[in-house]
Amino acid sequence: MKDLTRRTFLKTLGGGVIASSALLSACRKATTDNASLPEDQGEEGTMTYRTSRTTGEKISLLGYGMMRLPVVEEGEGTARERHDATIDQETVNRLVDYAIEHGVNYFDTSPAYCQGLSERSTGIALSRHPRSSYYVATKMSNFSEATQTRSASQEMLRNSLRELKVDYIDYLLLHSVGGGDDSHALFNARFMDNGILDWLVEQRTAGVIRNLGFSFHGDIAIFDMLMQWHDEGKYHWDFVQIELNYIDWSYAHQINPRNTDASYLYGELEKRGIQAVIMEPLLGGRLSNMPDAIVEKMKTRRPESTVASWAFRFAGSPEGVLTVLSGMTYFEHLEENVATYSPLQPLSEEERQFLEGVAHDYFNLNAIPCNECNYCLPCPYGINIPAVFTHYNRCLQEGNLPNRSDVSREYKRARRAFLIGYDRSVPRLRQAAHCIGCRQCVEHCPQGINIPREMQRIDALVEELKQSL
Q1: If we measure between CA atoms, which residue out of 419, 415, 463, 457 comes closest to residue 435?
Q2: What is the mean pLDDT of residues 159-173?
């Protein structure tokens, strides 16, 4: 399983009023009860912890996502994005040291992250610290048919133990359930037909796995089925990882019908007492790079806070949240996020309502819901799909998306900004014009974006702008 490739890996509704009430109730009750460690309302400079409902252990509210690790080679990109990347282990060690020193004790990885290098790098960094000082989460990432046999999936877990240099896994997840066009068939192939889910339950009983859960993407029928299994006692979930942020709380389904509002997912978990691990608190970084008008509104409301800190406070406020994951490649991101949760200042009712307004404004921008996860890469025709979408969204957010009905000077300025910025941010051979609609990318997109259609739309816009020069 050490040679698991990126391409192998890639083969792979709640009501608004009720949701708002649930979040407010959850925010009000966000406390812990351990006298020996800082509580949610701890002293300045001390990390906030949440108590695991299954083990009673204290988990840092900030979790370290080991998916975007720094690389040695010169050039842009992280180990998750680049195919020629060698992880900068010295920097990873220093990042992990700083995190542990400042109270972070939850580290999340996968056999598939960083072209299969994340677990090894994480294991090297963490093994320099006492085993009792951290909790490690990894995943059963058996996406390809070659890894879905019983023996191959079992070897994947054993290899994770070796790479992470541990005797047991604190949190083991069925990776990305609900994804794919035929999610039930894929789920059965990965976990049921081969008996792997039952085997993982046995490993939990034996202590090789201490907590068993899953990360969810896509098909709500799969999520509901797994909740029903929990209710019936067929399978017990110790935790579940979901995407939660102040946009996805109420707008995930409206942005993409394939997705489910986080308010529903969180509410279903909280009804059952299952703690949530949060991914995408920044919506793929978009909530740290908001439109100028929204940034100004946030700064007016809370001048001392960064835009990103609003998102992290939202994600961490509900009491049923165990930890909030952040893929922190750079020290400044780590330092800022540590500060936000040291300690957490839970959202007030007024602040929650304020973010509801921000979410409404953002939703009305109609941005392409790309999280820059890069699962769509590599494109066989060399298109940098995330970069194309990022440029489009940035222009939309900054007011540089030309309005076809506007023939004023402002239109000319926006047209020029869009075209010049496009050539600067995306090399011409990697732009949308080279998409042939092969659709190889579509099945890999967790957000369910019709990538060829969006590429065609953006290319048509580019050509129209060029013709009007």
Answers
A1: 457
A2: 98
Residue position matching structure tokens 């986080």: 262
Nearest C-alpha neighbor of 215 from the set 169, 171, 268? 171
What digits encode the pLDDT tens for the residues 355-409?
999 999 888 877 788 888 888 999 999 999 999 998 988 887 777 777 655 556 6
Structure confidence by residue, pLDDT tens digits, 265-286: 999 999 999 999 999 999 988 8
3-state secondary structure 90-123: HHHHHHHHHHHHCCCCEEECCCCHHHHCHHHHHH
Taking the C-alpha atoms of residue 12 and residue 185, their distance in angstroms, rounded to an integer, is 12
Q: Which two tokens stand for residue 393?
A: 């969204």
Distance CA 420, CA 424 (A): 6
Both tokens assigned to 27: 């925010």
Tens of pLDDT, residues 169-207: 999 999 999 987 678 999 999 999 999 999 999 999 999
Q: Which of 397, 246, 372 is nearest to 315 (CA)?
A: 246
Report CA-CA distances (Å) from 11 to 33, 142, 290, 378, 405.
Answer: 44, 10, 32, 12, 42
- The Cα–Cα gap between 246 and 256 comes to 15
* Non-local CB neighbours of 437 within 8 Å, separated by 6+ positions: 452, 455, 456
DSSP states of 218-287 as a string? S-HHHHHHHHHHHHHTSS--SEEEEE--TTHHHHHHHH-TTS--HHHHHHHHHHTT-EEEEE-TTTTTGG
Sign of CA dihedral 43, 48, 51, 57: negative
* Phi, psi at 289, each rounded to 5°: -135, 60
Report the mean per-residue pLDDT for the chain.
87
Half-sphere exposure of 122 (CA within 13 A, CB side): 34
In the DSSP assignment, the letter for residue 190 is I
> What's 356's DSSP letter?
H
Distances (CA, A) of 208 to 160, 173, 205: 11, 13, 8
Which two tokens mark 193?
């037909």
